[in-house]
Specification:
This protein has about 160 residues and is of the alpha+beta class. Helix content is about 35%, strand content about 25%. It starts with a strand and ends in a 19-residue tail after the last helix.
Length: about 160
Amino acid sequence: MSHRLIVRDLRPSDVDSLCSLLVSSFEREYAEQGLDVWGFRSHYRLLAWLNLLLRPLRLEFFKVSVAVTDDAAARVLGTLASLRAGPRAWYQGFGAVSPETRGQGVYKRLIRRTLEDVAARGGAIGGGEIRVDNHGAMRPYRDTFGTRVLPVQKLYLIEPGRVA
C-alpha cells in the first residue's frame, strides 16, 4: 500500500467504494445467492447517515467500519460490521478485505478498532463467525485478543410447518 491506512466509521461518501469492495471480495458467493450488492447502495448510505447521527447519543445498532486510504479518493480496502446482539453483546461480521491487500494487516486493524469501539460502548461480549478454513481471519482473534475458538457446530433449519 502506497498510502497510509485509516480505520473509521463508514461515511455516505464511502458507499460506492464499499460496494466495489464487496463485489470484488464475494463475487462468487453473491452470484450463487442472486444478490446484487449495488442494489443495497441506498441501505448502506442510510446506515452511514444513521450512525453519524446516532453515534453521539450512543444509540448505534448496526455499525460499519471501513479501512480507507488517506488520499483524496479514500478507497475502501476493508470493512467490518458490528451489530447489537443484546444489552452488552455485539456481533462482529460481514467483513471483507480487498484481494490485493490481504495479508497486510487490514483485517487485524479492523477487528481491533471494532472491538475497542464495542468495549467503549459498554460491550462485555463480542463474537463473530468465521469459516474454519480462514486461518488469516481467526489468527487476530486468537493471538491478539486471546480469544478461544469454539469447535465447529452444525445448525439445521426446518421449514415452518414441517415439524412433526
